[in-house]
Amino acid sequence: MPKRLAITIAGAVSLGSYEAGVLYEVLDAIHQHNSAEGVTDDEKILIDVMTGASAGAMTAVIVAHKMLYSANEFRDPYDNPLYNVWVKRIDLEGLLKTVDETTGQVEPPLRSIFSSNVVEGIAKDTILGRYASGEWPAPITHLAAARSISIGMTLTNLNGVDYGYDMQPCGKFIYTRHEDQMTRVVSVDGSDKPEVWRELADASVASGAYPLAFRAKEMDRRRADYAKNGLEPWTDDPSRFTYTDGGILQNEPLGMAKNLVDEIDRHWYNDSRFYLFVSPHGRTSSADSSFCEVNADYFQMMKRWAKVLLGQSEFQDWITAVEMNEQIALMDARASELVEKLRSGEIKSGSLKRTADGLLKVLFSQPTRTGTRQVAKIGRESLAEARRRIGHQYKEEIASLGPGSYAADAFRDTVLAFETAANLGQCDYMRIYGIAVSEELLAGADLTGFLGFFDERYRVHDYDRGRMVARMVLTDPVMSEAGELGPIRYTPKHTNPIDSTLNGLQLAQLSIEEQREFREGVKKRVSEMVRYLIGFWSYPADVVVIEPLMNAILNHMFRE
After folding, report:
1. Residue 181 pairs with which residues in a beta bridge?
2. Whether the predicted model's global pTM rises above the 0.85 cut
């Protein structure tokens, strides 16, 4: 069986250029590796899960679509869908164009600061362009792609979905959940259709609809997409919801990737399962000891609030995975000790087997409700299925005891009892490789990740930085050790020199021309908002109030 790779891509705003560089390098490395002479089927690497938040959601959908149907578009490091979207196409000039050049329509000024048409256009052209003529070519599938790919995106549901839980002695507690997601399975053979990818394109735009910067996005959702436990009745199915940036509440959906993996693997073949986590954040502390009551003005508070909010939406799944890996490692260590005790005769297999049998009968039967207390449902896995799974997961230990022997069966059932009692049956050890970077090495990280939109040079810098960081991870000797993803057989392609003077660029360091473009664009948009609100009276308000106020605010921003 080939090695399977699940990729999670964090939210990034303009630092999508960094993630684009990482993803290009990863795809190129796997393509070279899988096509190398002498590589066996077991040594090949296939990507079968992709999850993303915000900008990472758009990247995940683009990569999945192109891998399945348009692999030939990924040959050139500086001319491919990711580079063309995140480096060449999306920029400050386009984001500030809030008037449609074809129709003359102005985007509603109270819905967003920047133009959402740019992002909508990228989704339409890059993902749906294949289907524009009504006829599309036969798919060309990337050597890194599995035949089917599970896609997941985080969303923030501004309407909310209600879940109800019984209270004692009577009544119900209603919890409205705003953390949302969309998951779909797409394949080479059955999903090359515009209606499939239109839904995914819309979801990727919604996931990246950064609050205030871009307008919210409506989508129809079906009740079947949501967890049933406690879900309150819906008036309509499908129902329409309004979404904003998925990275606000969950910016790094590693847990979603694990859930999608479980639907594929069913907790089997974990020795060939790997995870890749891509993020432009997380290599340095975001703590700020200098922030205090005295300097907590509106500007400082907004900047700090943005960092705090983003920071709390990051790494929760990673931390959970690390903690769970420790629990699984502890159970594996106990299993190894048990093997030694059985082999030495210190523990008698007969008595152990009888005890384990009795425990499993209890653990795999659904308890009945007693009194008013709710009893959780046990897992859907049967005892026979669980025994087969444990037998596969611990095949080396069982082989050392003699497959089919009383000692081997006693070991299998005891480990299963340990696992079930500890509620680890749905958990697996996750081998996670991180391709993260310090923001001090990026050009576009300031202004909560929007700075990269100011100049293509910044996005080129971060794209190449992504390629270099990915290259260091992919060629690290650790990757070639037993049980790891590698060794990956590839020769890195040419990378342009990185301009180190752009490392850690700050807003105040921008050129006068870049500052002027941003100032004029923001002031123009604010004027449109005022005009929309008060009509005729907006002109004197512009001259007397808005212009001086905006100049003061922007001067403060560029001094920071």
Report:
1. 154
2. yes
